[in-house]
Amino acid sequence: LHKEYRRQRQMCIRDRLKETDLQIRLLQVDTEHYFQSAPKESHIQYMAFLTDMIVLHELLEVNRRMSALMSSVQWKQTCFHECYTLACRQISMFCSSQTPSHFRKPYFVSEYVVSAVIFLLVDLLLDTSSGRKYKCEVLRKADTVIAQLKTYKIVIRPAIRGIYVIQRLCDLVKGKRQVYDRLLYTSPSPRD
């Protein structure tokens, strides 16, 4: 009885996530249409950039959450490529030379991009089967994001934390886990 309730609850949540995904995509189409017909003034381009970043982030979050409700094989077949594409689009928008630097300044923009990179890196760590195919590309994207985050002249906490977390995850993906294990087990105790 408990297993049946849990299965039905997961199906209900999955259906809600699918509905949310559809609603966000409809919003995305509406906003793209609006911004395409709007004047090409800088403040409108800025609003379009921020809106795109928010929509891509929300789509990634919805599709990423589906992983908790499916087997890893099922999620890989149905949601992974969508998540991968959404994360890469966020990173590309953020790192593009066409993106004015002031577009990147709101704290949530760097937070969303860091989240996208972390998604890609954690997926590489968890999925060894397809990881090799994407590994070099994801590591290159991570390095590009780190370089971009380091250009900030003002302190933006998500950027600082993001640089640290992304660098550590990159080290783990590259197989430098033993370095952290040695530091963990050989660090002096507070009493020494």
How many helix segments?
Answer: 7
Distance between the termini: 55 Å
Largest sheet: none
Structural class: mainly alpha
| Beta-strand percentage range | under 5%
Q: What is the number of strand segments? A: 0
The unreliable regions are none
Shape: globular
N-to-C SSE series?
HHHHHHH
The averaged pLDDT comes out at 85
Instruction: Determine Rg (CA atoms, Å).
Output: 19 Å
State the helicity in percent bands: over 70%
Strands, helices and their partners?
Elements: H1 2-37, H2 42-65, H3 72-95, H4 107-126, H5 128-149, H6 157-173, H7 177-186
Describe this structure as you would to a colleague.
- This protein is an all-alpha fold and 192 residues long.
- 80% of the residues lie in helices and 0% in strands.
- Helix 4 (107-126) runs antiparallel to helix 5, helix 4 (107-126) packs parallel to helix 6 and helix 5 (128-149) runs antiparallel to helix 6 (157-173).
- The chain contains seven helices and no strands.
